[in-house]
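Re: the 115-residue chain
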Amino acid sequence: MPQTDRKGQVIDMDVGVITAIAGLVGTAVSGVIGYASGKNNNKVTDRELLSKDEQAFRERLIERLTASEEKIERLSNEVITLRQENMELISENRLLNIKVEQLVAQLSRRRGDVR
């Protein structure tokens, strides 16, 4: 009888080891499947986040582009105004130079008359 008990213990121990190994393998397989599933879900999430980031980037870019276009238009109008004012000042300067020349000539004639 002691041998039977011993064989029973050995068999019980073998069944316990086999059960433990089967549980370990099952856990490992479940872990691998869960990891793979989670990794695929994260890829979709990463893509969605990238898409959202890209949309936000494009919106900021469009805002900056619009602001730049408005600034360019405003500066272009200012350049046109300044060119017109410059042309008017050039014309006025020419007229003043003519008047200065006339006054210098008049002064020269008067000095010539006095001397």
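The chain has one helix and no strands.
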